[in-house]
Amino acid sequence: MDELDYWRLCESLNAYQAAAxxxxxxxxxxxxxxxxxxxxxxxxxQPSRLDPSFQAAVTALKGAIRDGTLSAKIxxxxxxxxxxxxxxxxxxxxxxxxxxxxxxxxxxxxxSADGKLFYKPLIDxxxxxxxxxxxxxxxxxxxxxAGFFFPNREEGQPGYLEKTHPNYAxxxxxxxxxxxxxxxxxxxxxxxxxxxxxxxxxxxxxxxYGLTKEDGTPNATGVEEAAKLANWRPEGGASKTPGE
Length: 244
Prior knowledge:
By secondary structure, the protein is mainly alpha-helical. The chain contains nine helices and eight strands. The protein has helices at residues 3-7, 15-22, 51-67, 83-96, 132-141, 170-183, 186-189, 194-204, 220-230; strands spanning 12-13, 30-31, 37-41, 44-47, 78-80, 110-111, 117-119, 130-131.
C-alpha cells in the first residue's frame, strides 16, 4: 500500500486535500504557507508542473461549496476572548465612560454573541470539511468517473449515472446517489426514517441533478419523487443506527 491508499481512510477532507487527491497527488505535497500551491516534492519548495491542475481543482471545489452544489461543514477561524482582551475593554470603558466589549478585535474580526470568541465571518478552508462520499457524488455530476475517489470502478462499467451518457436520467441518478450516500453513512440515518435521510441528501444536492426551481431552491416534487424511488422502507419507521 502507498500513501494514497491511507488517505482513503479519511471520511472527510478539506478543499486543498481533496483537490490534491482529485489530480492524483498526495496532500503532503501542499505548501501550507499563505499561498497554497503544490510542491515539486515533499522537501522541494519549487511548484510542481501539476500546480495549475491543483489550483483549478481548488477553485472548483470552493465554488461548488459557495454555490451549494457540494455539501460541506463550513467553519470559520475563532480565537478566544481572553484575559488581556477583557482588561483592555475595562481600560477603554473607563476612558470613554461607556460599557463595551470586543474593542481588541483584529481587522475583520467579530465578537461572538456570547462574548467568548472573536471570529472572522469568512470561510476557513483549512477547517471546513467535505465528506468523501459527497466529493465522489459531486465529481460524478462533473463527469469524473476515475481516479483516487473511484478505486473500485471497473472498466466498461455502465455510465448511466454520468451526464455524458445518451440515456442519462437526472432523477434516477439522484435517487441512486442518494441511496449510496445514505446507506454508506450511518450518521445520516440517526433518528430519521430512510425517506427523511434521503430527502435531506437530495435537498442538499438538488442543484447537481437539476432538481431545483428557477430561483435555485430545491423542487419539492422532484425531490419527493427521487426519495420515493430510493426509499427501501416505504412502510416508514426510523432505521436502527449504532448506539441506539
